[in-house]
Amino acid sequence: MGPDRREFLGAAGASAAAAAAATVGEGAAAQPVASFPKGFLWGAATAAHQIEGNNLSSDLWLVENVKPTMFREPSGDACNSLELWPTDLDLARDMGLNAYRFSIEWARIEPEPGFFSAAMLDHYQAVIDGCRARGLTPVVTFSHFSAPRWFAAGGGWTNPEAADLFARYCDRAARRLAANMGAAVTLNEPNMITVVGEVLPPQMTGMVRDMNAAAGRACGSSNFKNAMLPEVADIPTAQAHMIAAHKAGRAAIKAARSDLPVGVSLTMSDDQAVGENSLRDAKRAQFYGPWLEAAKADDFLGVQNYARAQWNDKGQVPPPKGAKLNGMGAEIYPASLAGAVRYAHAATGVPILVTEHGLSTADDALRAAFIPAALTDLQKVVAEGVPVQGYIHWSLIDNFEWVFGYSQHFGLHSVDRATFRRAPKPSAAALSAIVRRNAV
Length: 440
Ligand code: BGC
Fold this sequence. Notes:
Blueprint: H1 5-13, H2 16-19, E1 21-24, E2 31-34, E3 41-45, H3 48-51, H4 59-65, H5 81-94, E4 99-103, H6 106-109, H7 118-133, E5 137-143, H8 149-153, H9 162-177, E6 183-188, H10 192-199, H11 203-219, H12 235-256, E7 262-267, E8 270-273, H13 280-295, E9 300-305, E10 308-311, H14 336-348, E11 352-357, H15 364-383, E12 388-394, E13 413-415, E14 422-424, H16 426-437
Parallel strand pairs: 3-4, 3-12, 4-5, 5-6, 6-7, 7-9, 8-10, 9-11, 11-12
Antiparallel strand pairs: 1-2, 13-14
Helix pairs in contact: 9-12, 14-15, 15-16
Beta-D-glucopyranose binds at residues 47, 50, 188-189, 267, 304, 356, 394, 401, 410.
């Protein structure tokens, strides 16, 4: 019998008492520790386009390589993980992790509309089986921002047929790959488009439009819309189609394997109200509302948290003076994960899986301190009784950070850009120590 739903839901089903203070050691030296439930998933995450390299059939490969582009540099070889995936899985295993989140690349599996590559499906089957062989539960994302070039050339998520096209891909991929998966995420951070539409300056609209137009010229499309960065006017349509795609994709995956837990992952700040008439609740409704509604029918909700956002009556409040900032310019605030998880569960009632959490920094000592601090707060949420199934850190390795290219470092391991050699950073040991004790 393949892995079943209990394996995945077990951690969340365990009583909160199991997550409360327990005692390790013997005799007088016994120390109370804050433990996580038995079966808690501990993982690290990656995404195909960010690590595999040479994702030639994808929409992003094209937009990275046209002029003008918003990308600092092209993804190129990335971390060469299409070749080196066994090494990546070894890194996860060597940390003592029991889960690995990665994505399968739609552009490789369906490089032309309706042509499904048996060889590429075999490849991803090998990765899934490679996870199992190393004791890693595969948490598999079906779409992590990138899409086939032909999909973007046909209008991307604005195409009225987008949901059906995504569901057709999910059907083919799930029928081949679902048997050995541990959990499936349909879309990664589909709500990112509403957040991006709000926070990026107005000139972004023109930049995305010009970049899409250049990509369209390069591939003979007058309606090229990359799947990741939206043109502001397209956001409402794209969001409606992505919600439909999530539902249709989930149905297709469930049709292939009804007991496989399926969810969506959302980008979620820890939104905090400041002063009177704070815009916090309105922002929550805008950024997450329709997705939290959709997630109520899912088996779990993937929470991806990197920061807090404080809102007063006018908008977002800048970080407090003197606050330490991460590489993206946001305040380093470890307690944000617990806040986001608490809200996500209260708003949906479904179990939470932390599918991403991490820190962009070239100073790994900051990450090594950030992880235990965030997990100390997360453990308290678990002990309160919030069903949290696991914690998956972003990222296993330094990788291609989208428009920022290779300038941002989220990895628990570094990657030499010339040799692709991976090396553990001290933060990998910091997370590993917590994983091995199942306690902070
Ligand atoms: C995305 C990742 C990204 C990470 C760090 C998330 O928005 O899912 O692909 O690398 O955050 O920015």
